[in-house]
Amino acid sequence: MQLTKEQRTFIVKKYFQTKSFQQVIQSFQEHFPERQSSTKMTIWRNVTRYRTEGTSLNLNKGRSGRKRTGRSEENVRIVQGALTENPPISARISGLDVTKSTFNRIITLDLKWYLYKMHVRNKLLDNDLPWLLNFAQWFLQRNVRFVDDIVVGDVAVFHLNGRVNNHNVRTDAPKNQHPNFNSDVGISREKVSVWMELCGNGHVIGPYFYNNNLNGVEYLVLINNRIVPRLRETHGNRINRTSWIQDGTPAHRTVAVREN
Question: Which end of the chain is less congested by CB atoms within 10 angstroms, N or C?
Fold first, then answer.
């Protein structure tokens, strides 16, 4: 920790009064008991600086180190203009003539912008609340083995040609100015669907891979030919007590699926 202005002044004055390193150290300890004792080298440096510069203060403060080149005023203006025009721009694909590290330092140190992550949330409507309350009350009335018999299945979609996963989306913006995230939801992109099932008793079923979206016909075949046989192996005679949980994806709500 650097010496304060008061401590530097005390060291110089005491040295010129006593001409003794030991007395300066002893007096410093008595006057600043909370501060680690100064060394002979520290005392000599402060005295020498006073003799040559007329002050014992740190003249290098604010001007030490390498001269800033990447974070020049021009580059700061360029980065700020690029972010204002296109906030989702990243250091990797900015197209600006600055390095990735310089780009990030300008955002953090010069512009004081922050990195925001996109979160996808389902909007709750007024008529959703009674349903949620009823479900919670119903769930609390189940027996202790009910959780073991829960089966939860879901699908994840991996796009192969451009669309980003929202877990990887980051946008820079000034503090307390949350950005608006836009996500392309076009269905024409090439993709792979991965289906997996988690069981309350600790078993995992899957994963199963499908090109593009999993439709109702494929989902029904998946249930009858793969999931049910696997559940018979993992749950045995308790398969009839399992509770199947799925979301409202169109493939899960087709007539054929609901009737079977």
Answer: N
